[in-house]
Amino acid sequence: MRVYVPLTLSGLAAAHGAGEVGPGPLTAYAVTPGLREWYVSDDIEELEYAALNRAASASLRMIAGKPDESRRRVVVALDVADGAAVADPDHILDAASLGEVRIADPVALSKAAAVHVDADDAEKDVAEAAAALGAADLGDDDAQFTVDGAEDHELLWFGIQEIPGLIG
Question: Is the pTM of this model over 0.90?
Answer without folding.
Answer: yes
